[in-house]
Amino acid sequence: MASKITILLPILTALYLLPTTAVSRDTNAHTDSGPLDCTNRWIYIRQLPSRFNLDLLTSCSNYYPLYDDFCPYIANHGLGQATHNRSKSWFRTDPHMLEVSFHRRILEYPCLTSVPETADAIFIPYYAGIDALRYLYGSDVNSSSEHGLNLFNYMQTNEPEIWGRNLGHDHFLVMARSAWDFSQAADADPPIWGTSFLELPQFYNVTALTLESRAWSWQEQAIPHPTSFHPSTLALLESWVLRVRRSHRSTLMLFAGGGGTSTTPNIRRSIRETCLNDTRISDVTGRFQRLCEIVDCSNGACEHDPIRYMKPMLHATFCLQPPGDTPARRSTFDGILAGCIPVFFEDQSARIQYRWHLPSKEFEEFSVTIPKEDVVYRGLSIVDVLMRIPRGEVRRMRERVMELIPRVIYRKHGSSLGLRARKDAFDVAIEGTLKRIHSRLRER
Ligand SMILES: *[C@@H]1O[C@H](CO)[C@@H](O)[C@H](O)[C@H]1NC(C)=O
Ligand SMILES: *[C@@H]1O[C@H](CO)[C@@H](O)[C@H](O)[C@H]1NC(C)=O
Ligand SMILES: *[C@@H]1O[C@H](CO)[C@@H](O)[C@H](O)[C@H]1NC(C)=O
Ligand SMILES: *[C@@H]1O[C@H](CO)[C@@H](O)[C@H](O)[C@H]1NC(C)=O
């Protein structure tokens, strides 16, 4: 209990002390690249009672053991605790805390307005995924189809004109889980899995930023799972990229994950078999010391321990990213951060989902796709496919992967101006959201 309070108190006070509508329209923030143009970029943060966000953090140990005690991961505004005492950029980040860290980041967004009528977009600072825990793992499981109604009613009864101006088409929020967790049919009886937030007509017009989207979605857009790397200066980012560039890639391919032990044919099982078989075979070309490495992440072993997988990823040329319980995986972004070329086995794993952050037109330039059916049912060898890619091509792909690093990481709040001039995952998400909202409003 004591430790929980020591972690929470500084966060809560820090958030409260920050002005929530920091900048008004006529006090443009300046960066070193000159005055900032906020045209079409104004964001208003809706004022919500703390029961919709900060208060929810106090329930961080309520769902244990059904759900991990997430109190430690709230530290540093949702980035988690530093991996070790002297670590500046590495944290034990839990991706579900993105709602907290995104909230913190938007407070320093340079084009905030305190006048909702002049805003291009309205941010709802609701911790949707954290609130969902009481429906997923808590006592409200039988009312999971009502998730979101309190919020909607609040927005209809308090300053309803903010919603009314564009009927919610200009509103957006972060839901730091897979969209599947919020897509239970509203009439599911008994409840199956998930809440019905994204199925409620009340929220059809709102843009939700999720960690994964459904195959045919128009409400949500997937944004990168946060990695554990959150630099605060350009120098810290650049020295990491330099380390990635210089890293000796002695392993052909790596899989960091769990599963693959079932007896029914599936891609994870094929990968597991290949790796267990092929590590015994030496590479005749002499390019690699080993062909395959598995980092065993079963039972959440890797979740808050980035050293476990980042080091091996730095030494691998390709990182295998098969679908898991859901089509995408966090490890895709960890791998990119390590300069490890992603290998996908279906388009839903990344190409379709992360269009804003991983440009789909250039997808082949930084990744390899091997259809999983060819591997599982037609005996195509992953090793053969990857070994056939010429060295020069591999080098070019890795360069492209390294160019993606700044876009897929979430930098630390309060970063230096130099680093702020580089677009990170947050900036790209905001840019995409604004574009999407503008096109929605034009259509109306
Ligand atoms: C980290 O810092 C804490 C508190 O300052 C200290 O108790 C702990 O021993 C340090 N750990 C290491 C590994 O230095
Ligand atoms: C939910 O409903 C089922 C069936 O009516 C019941 O058995 C269960 O106890 C309820 N769960 C809770 C947490 O109320
Ligand atoms: C969503 O937008 C449509 C038309 O654009 C409108 O008819 C509907 O009432 C809106 N929904 C809500 C809950 O405001
Ligand atoms: C792995 O080795 C076993 C036994 O030698 C063999 O039956 C199996 O087909 C191999 N699997 C792969 C994917 O190479």
Automatic annotation (TrEMBL):
Membrane topology, from the record: Single-pass type II membrane protein
UniProt main location, coarse: Golgi
Domain Exostosin GT47: from-to ranges: 38-377
UniProt keyword Transferase, yes or no: yes
Keyword Transmembrane in record: yes
Compartments it resides in: Golgi apparatus membrane
Domain of life: Eukaryota
Region forming the signal peptide: 1-24
Keywords: Glycosyltransferase, Golgi apparatus, Signal, Signal-anchor, Transferase, Transmembrane
InterPro entries in the record: Exostosin (IPR004263), Exostosin_GT47 (IPR040911)
GO molecular function ontology, one term from the record: glycosyltransferase activity
Gene Ontology CC terms: Golgi membrane
Homology family: Belongs to the glycosyltransferase 47 family.
The protein, known as: Exostosin GT47 domain-containing protein
